Amino acid sequence: MSVSEGPEPYRGALWRQPVNPLVVVDDPEAVELTGPVFGSADVTDLDGDLTRQRPGAPLGERITLTGRVLDRAGCPVRGQLIEIWQANAAGRYAHRRDQHHAPLDPHFTGAGRCLTDDQGRYRFTTIRPGAYPWGDHSNAWRPAHIHFSLFGAAFTQRLVTQMYFPGDPLLPLDPILQSVGDDAARQRLVAAYDPELSTPDWALGYRWDIVLGGPSATRTEGGRR
């Protein structure tokens, strides 16, 4: 398939739509009790540095990723819990269901979290993920991306999205990204390389802001890979 032919349609929507009636829950507190539980440990700096979570250093291109979480009026969202998860540098997730024929990295968990500061800023140190094949269509590869999850005041208030990297040749071929019909909205899902964030001899820097609502809102998703 050439770039001029455009990407294949995103077929995952057909696989992931509900086949059974939705479950009606009358007690909101019961929903929260069955949701994710992070335990009693506070969020620390180690949670936001995916290169220091294991005894050894993970393989791959080290990056610093930062930005701001803003509301529809452009005001910072303070104390926002952000989680990320991603594939390793070889394009494989540290998850039992990922059977991609790429090596696992014993020194990379692929998951982190942090809280935004008073200016709505977040910061992660991690490894640039690799592309990986997926079964959407013939010879389909997902571009490098990092999943973001943002929680509100409760676990039932959750937004999930994906961040991509600039200059990736797989971007125009990716059905998930191209399912966002508005070009400006697609571009808002791509981080910007920022040399001011790069640390000499250590890491490249990327900046990506997340806007919650309004005409410049960051596109969010439900149940995508």
TrEMBL record:
Q: Which Pfam families match?
A: Dioxygenase_C
Protein name per Swiss-Prot or TrEMBL: Protocatechuate 3,4-dioxygenase subunit beta
Q: Which domain of life is it from?
A: Bacteria
A molecular function (GO) held by this record is: protocatechuate 3,4-dioxygenase activity
Q: What class of enzyme is it?
A: oxidoreductase
Is Oxidoreductase one of the keywords?
Answer: yes
| InterPro entries on file | Intradiol_dOase_C, Intradiol_dOase_core, Intradiol_RC_Dioxygenase, Protocat_dOase_b
Organism, scientific name: Streptantibioticus ferralitis
Keyword terms of this UniProt record: Dioxygenase, Oxidoreductase
Q: What is its EC number?
A: 1.13.11.3
Q: Which PANTHER family match?
A: DIOXYGENASE, PUTATIVE (AFU_ORTHOLOGUE AFUA_2G02910)-RELATED, INTRADIOL RING-CLEAVAGE DIOXYGENASES DOMAIN-CONTAINING PROTEIN
